């Protein structure tokens, strides 16, 4: 994959005490695509995304954003929703967004723009605590979009959503590349990912086992099982 990459990691690692949660992972996320990071529970997906989003410090390797070494200033162009969105339950969607626009020093009109993008313009006086899970996710994404990121990181975005919520989120995510936003998301729901992503990376035991464009005719589940089982066998043989 030699096209322009908005993000590259070069053998990035994160060790907690003596165990490597992420072990020399080299990701290549092409600009203008949706990249799906797949892996079983505990594979290292969240840890990897947290390093890219500046929430955890790598213990090894390097990261490149937009062709330059990753630095704190890269975060001005990286939006992230990792784990559940941090919302004020007693505030409306607009009020939640207002807190963030003030903190970021952004004009208030951004609020209307992002509400429109995530289709939450009509929630009026409803407080976030009373939102459905799908609405909370979309408000979390709206917050991440406020600063107009070029890369949006979403950790398990469809987790816990009902089929309608999943469908709405899928359409939203698919609309991002056309708006100049590259998406890097993690998931273990293969059938959902299959319909959203352009490229996939399969991670297990902290290592990237496979990376490439998703072949729409290929059986993703079979590929996933093969890659993860082979890595389990290698781990068992050690
Ligand atoms: N702060 C921490 N301290 C010690 N170990 C950690 C810490 N955070 C994660 N780990 C370990 O790192 C490994 C990878 O965890 P991580 O949450 O990144 O996986 P994941 O692929 O996101 O899993 P899931 O799909 O279950 O969320 C796990 O073995 C986990 O126990």
Automatic annotation (TrEMBL):
<dbReference type="InterPro" id="IPR003439">
    <property type="entry name" value="ABC_transporter-like_ATP-bd"/>
</dbReference>
<dbReference type="Pfam" id="PF00005">
    <property type="entry name" value="ABC_tran"/>
</dbReference>
<protein>
    <submittedName>
        <fullName>ABC superfamily ATP binding cassette transporter,ABC protein, ABC protein</fullName>
    </submittedName>
</protein>
<keyword id="KW-0067">ATP-binding</keyword>
<keyword id="KW-0547">Nucleotide-binding</keyword>
<dbReference type="InterPro" id="IPR017871">
    <property type="entry name" value="ABC_transporter-like_CS"/>
</dbReference>
<dbReference type="InterPro" id="IPR027417">
    <property type="entry name" value="P-loop_NTPase"/>
</dbReference>
<comment type="similarity">
    <text>Belongs to the ABC transporter superfamily.</text>
</comment>
<keyword id="KW-0813">Transport</keyword>
<dbReference type="InterPro" id="IPR003593">
    <property type="entry name" value="AAA+_ATPase"/>
</dbReference>
<feature type="domain" description="ABC transporter">
    <location>
        <begin position="7"/>
        <end position="230"/>
    </location>
</feature>
<dbReference type="InterPro" id="IPR022501">
    <property type="entry name" value="ABC_Gallidermin_ATP-bd"/>
</dbReference>
């Amino acid at each position: 994959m030699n096209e322009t990459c908005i993000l590259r990691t070069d053998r990035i690692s994160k060790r907690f005490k003596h165990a490597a949660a992420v072990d020399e992972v080299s990701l290549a996320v092409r600009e203008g695509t949706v990249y799906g990071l797949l892996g079983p529970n505990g594979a290292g997906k969240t840890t990897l995304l947290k390093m890219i989003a500046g929430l955890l410090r790598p213990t090894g390797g390097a990261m490149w954003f937009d062709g330059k070494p990753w630095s704190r200033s890269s975060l001005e162009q990286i939006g992230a929703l990792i784990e559940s969105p941090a919302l004020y339950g007693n505030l409306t969607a607009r009020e939640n967004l207002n807190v963030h626009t003030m903190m970021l020093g952004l004009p208030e009109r951004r609020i209307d723009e992002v509400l429109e993008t995530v289709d939450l313009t009509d929630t009026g006086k409803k407080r976030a605590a009373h939102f459905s899970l799908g609405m909370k996710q979309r408000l979390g994404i709206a917050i991440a979009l406020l600063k107009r990121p070029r890369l949006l990181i979403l950790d398990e975005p469809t987790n816990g959503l009902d089929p309608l919520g999943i469908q709405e989120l899928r359409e939203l995510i698919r609309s991002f590349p056309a708006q100049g936003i590259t998406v890097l998301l993690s998931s273990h729901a293969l059938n959902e990912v299959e319909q959203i992503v352009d490229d996939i990376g399969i991670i297990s035991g902290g290592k990237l086992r496979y990376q490439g464009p998703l072949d729409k005719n290929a059986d993703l589940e079979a590929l996933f099982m093969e890659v993860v089982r082979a890595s389990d066998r290698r781990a068992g043989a050690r």
